[in-house]
Amino acid sequence: MGLLAGLLCAPGQFLLHCPPFMPPAIHPVDLLQVLRHQRLTPAIVFLTSRRACDEAIASFEHRRNPIPPTRSAAITDVLDHMMTAYPSIAGHPLIPTVQQYGVAAHHAGHLPSWKIAVEELMRQGCLDAVFATTTLAAGVDFPARTVVMTQSSVRKDRNVMELTVNEIQQLAGRGGRRGKDYVGFVVVTPSPYIDLGPIANGLTNHPEPIDSQFVVSYPMVLNLLKAHAIDHIQPILEKSFAQFQLNERADTYETKLDDVDMQLETYGRRECADWIAQWQSFSLARKRRSHHRRNTQHDPPEISAQLAFLTPGRAIELSRNQAIILRQYRSRGQGAPMLTVVRSGGHVIEYPASAVTAVIDEVIEVTEARRFPWCTPQSLDHAIETLERFPARLRRLPIRVDQDGADNPILTETLRDEFPCPTCPSRPACQKDHPQALKLRQEEHRLTKTIHAMRTELWHRFQQHVEVLQKFGYLTPACQLTAEGDWARLIRINHSLLITELIRMGAFEGITASLLAGVLASIAHDDDRPASFPGRHPALTSTLGQVRKVAHSLSAYEEPPLLRWDVAAIADRWIAESTLPWNELIRSTTMAEGDVYRLLARTLEYLSQVHGLKATHPGLAGIARDAMDLMRRDVLQELP
Amino acid sequence: MTNDALAQHLSGLSVRLLHRLAKNRLVRHFRMGKTRLIQSLLNLPPEQRAEIETTLTSLLSEPPRPSKPDKQGKSKPQPDAPRHPAPTSRQHQVPTEPAINTQALLEGIGVPQPQPFKPDDWQQDAIDRLATNDVILSVPTGSGKTYVAIEAMRRAIEAERTVIYTSPLKALSNTKLTEFSQLFGADQVGILTGDRRDNPQAPILIMTTEILRNLLYDAASGEIDVRMDTLGLIILDESQFLADAERGVVWEETIIFAPAQSRLLLLSASIGNPEEVAAWISSIRSTSCHLIHHRNRSVPLRAAYLDPSGKLAPFFRTRDIAHGKGFVLHPETKRLFANYEDRTLGPRYKR
Predict the structure, then answer these.
(1) Residue B225's pLDDT is what?
(2) Facing A169 at nearest CB: one of B171, B270, B273
């Protein structure tokens, strides 16, 4: 069914949803065979996922070509030696494979002790290949002759990101051991996640520049204000790499700004100090004013020049005949100038003023009336008679058309008392330069604003944090630490505001060591990959419910943690059952061993921060101490 | 050649070839039929006719090959058009299997004789500079940053100063603890973690950068926890973490609050703007920061492409990886990868 569905869907989806149809890569066993044959071992093979690493190792068991017994013995020797320091290596399920085939997996799902063992084996030259993930390139701190790359992109959180030049060079840099190799190799082999371009680019190109990731945090504010007065903070913030880089960017903006200022200066001095703003407000006012006189505004200049002559009694020429005007009016809709005329033959007709082809130098007596035909019957008769008597050609009135007469009345009359512009001598220059100058002026404002923001950004962020801390009572209005702030500054971890608020509201009073560890574990854990842990723990769930409410109320000031009860339960159980063996704990969850280790190690760190409050909160610090002591056993005791 | 003989030869040729012969010699030859073409070719002036005769003889001696590459094939499809492109393309495909020189690619693999260790100039320079300056080392992975760190530590201990060595990961701290313990003796190296202090009075202290940041904050607020006044050297390993989205700020804080009298040694993988970082540190510290930056690997690195079929090919045209000069993939690698994509994605899904 699934196969059928896969075949029926579109090609793109087809490739995405049907892993069995993924293009194949070289089989790990074949890969190693080629590498051995070409004397390219030992090699580090970077694969896309932990699962791919584990499967690669498992695939060796199906093909039986073990390494010589002497080498197996050497591996066993090294492993035995490591086991005395790190007992948790003993009984690791991968040991037989490592011994028989000389290959190992190395990724974050393993315990640190196992990773140390693999690194040691690699350093001693016992292994032919290590299959590792790309995610912890910095954590893979052992060289090999060859690095095998099978991907050009990695999964980061939920996105697939292309590897950066820095990352590719970090990976490739593991190839070639100083003093043990004449030459190192990067072997690229195709897989579904590969494109050759980015890899070739990453191998040859210059690495990307790094950028500051400075963030202001609550513990930073408290600790800075503990040691320094608020007046001295800004110079300290200015010492950051963030400010250094912001200043560099601001400097380039400064040169741009200078450029704009230079261009603005070329306009020279005008009558008023700020002619751009002056002209801007003047032209705005003019626009607004002329809006009220919309009816007259749109007349073309030749018509508005004629209008003064088109009075009742005036003789005019239309396209084909002559006529005498009876009235002038404006149409209701468009406000266009209209005429009512009497044509030869006695027809009274409406015409737009634009239909007038010429104005005749002849005016007759017409007595106007309020209604059609807009004059007395006598004058109408007189007009018709006159029209009959007109010769074919009459003297036309020459009409001078003033080109900028249209806005002259507004310019000279209406706004004269409010603005100096209409009569200003630099008016033509202003009118001409204004659009360009306004653009420059806006650019100038924008640049000034940006530069100011860059210079003061960090300080603003600091002040925002100060305000929040004042609101919660960690700082006095004079920015000095209150008694609360004095201990809160010792909590220097993520979600510090949530933890200090929980302590202040007494959420941890009378809490058991295991429950405290559980809550802190759920605050510390920021991975949303699924990890099931069967069985609910009522006390833990109810405590976490309260913590969640507090976290939600603080969400405006601090990103709330995931607060997963299933990871909390792991820490809780590890402490509550002090005889529980590590393997038992791992079997109860789907989380990888290495992830559980990291979770508990982080919880230990959080607990130690709470333990640091022993001067002010002896009770809570004592519980934290107990939790730490209980937690540090078995695997967690092996490494400092 | 007589008129008749030439006419006979010409009538034996295809119209297409006749057109080719007529090109640039006859006007509007493309409008002519075969008979008229032959007529007009025969009527050409003697020097052009001689040219035609020589071309014709060469055509007759090796019939399938065109005298010169031509674009005639692009014109209207003619009955015998495919005859010529087909053999040529086939002929071109035979030598496409270029002689890949995997020998050259793989030569020189082996283990060099153990040689007495002699530090590179830049390593010695870095160690000397550390007496008076802060130093940033931005060099490729595996070219010997640790040697500089160890020598600097040795000198600091001789001067009875303490050294703090920070790494971004606890796992790396542990590796370094073992490494330094073997070099200096277990009593000379201590490690600090959030909840545990092993041998905190030792002259060399290993910790994560977060722990050092916390120590510096404590020192700033007057609760001196560690011997800051005797602190002579702070080594920040993997300093490119400065650009880490979550933790980068810790590196900044550490560098800002590092005591003035102690020297800073930043060990970093290759980054794009080490000059900028050095300029920053110079601008905030009492002494200037010396940058050592190069891209020469102590062991040269070559790149190869491995096809799923097991065939190995050079990745680039050049054998060694050239930096900052662009790249040209080896044609064999291109071909193999194109085949891989064809095979796996199928021609229809090819990008």
Answers:
(1) 57
(2) B270
